[in-house]
Request: fold
Amino acid sequence: LQIPELPPNTVDAGSENILLSLVIPTYKERDNIKNVVSILSRLLDESILGDYELIVVDDDSPDRTWEVAESLTQEYRQLRVMRRQNERGLSSAVIRGWQGARGRVLGVIDGDLQHPPEVLSQLLGAIQKGADMAVASRHVDGGGVSKWSFFRRFLSRGAQLLGLIILPDVLGRVSDPMSGYFMVRRNSIAGVTLNPVGYKILLEVIGRGKVREIAEVGYVFCERVKGESKVTSKQYIDYIHHLVRLRLTTGRLGKISQRINFPVARFLRFGLVGLSGVVVDMTMLYLLSDPSTLALPLTRSKIIAGEIAIVNNFLWNDAWTFADVSSGQHEWGQWMKRFLKFNFICLVGLVLNVLVLNIVFNLIIQNRYIANLIAIAVATVWNFSVNLKLSWRV
Ligand code: GDD
Ligand code: MN
Reply:
């Protein structure tokens, strides 16, 4: 998903010249939305010198938040409402809102009044003074959380520490990388492809955008009064997934991947799946051939074990390594076609594996384990590249 550039002549053309577009993502915020819109409008009317727009992006909330929001557009002229029926998720909601936004500065604020609106003018002020991004932070002067238990603080800091270890280049740049309350210049993210994974859109923007100077403004994260949080354990998993993905596709690794025109992150996933296949193969071989279990002949056991490992690898690769390609192509026929191609390519890979092992062992290194490692590497690269082009057609 990409944010478009503004046409260069918006001002001359006499069309709108909007300073700030503020996205309010909502899911089941029926009891909050009216308050949020009225408080934000009053504040922005008074404090900012320039036009603004408020964009509510609601994911078709069952409590009909979108309907309440739409009913407010009469009274609040700067309000627009996007009701999404085919997509869900906080990050993608924010990006979708920005895609439809017209402002030179793009911002986001929660729709549950946990983010104090007074901070908005300071955030905007920081950008007008030259920052590319301004982040509301709980961890600088003037910041904090209201009534969090020790355990909750611990979890929050733990998540931040984990992020710092996996992705220091991004998390090291701000004191509160979990913040969902910030603004960024459109120029800093226009034309950049943002992936809508997870809950933490700020990481994505810092990780992929062209953000140089970042300002921070302290704020106290208020308690929720109405409605409830949508955070579940899934968000923690998404978070780790997001960190790893950014680690592999941005920064130095991302650059290498681009320069050699090779999908390093995908290859690593493929390799990990391959390792899981080795475990499956070994386990099956044991269960089938060991004298204490089924005691089948070795060759027959190996053929069955190998085939089960291939099925295992296909399932993981289809659901994970190539998830972006196979999603939406789950029709039985398409799926079977991918599976048969994968199966065939891996069998050819096995033949290649045996060939390389013999060649390397007999002609290059008289060490069967090193020779085997080389053979496995060659077969893996073969399996990956050919499946990439033929089975998933990347
Ligand atoms: N459109 C849409 N789709 N909005 C969503 C979705 C979704 O799937 N999930 C949550 N939201 C909206 C909520 O309605 C709310 O306005 C906002 O996103 C934040 O969601 P909460 O569930 O209230 O999150 P929180 O308060 O626990 O978490 C917040 O933690 C940070 C501080 O650690 C974050 O989301 C941050 O914004 C916040 O700064
Ligand atoms: Mn909240």
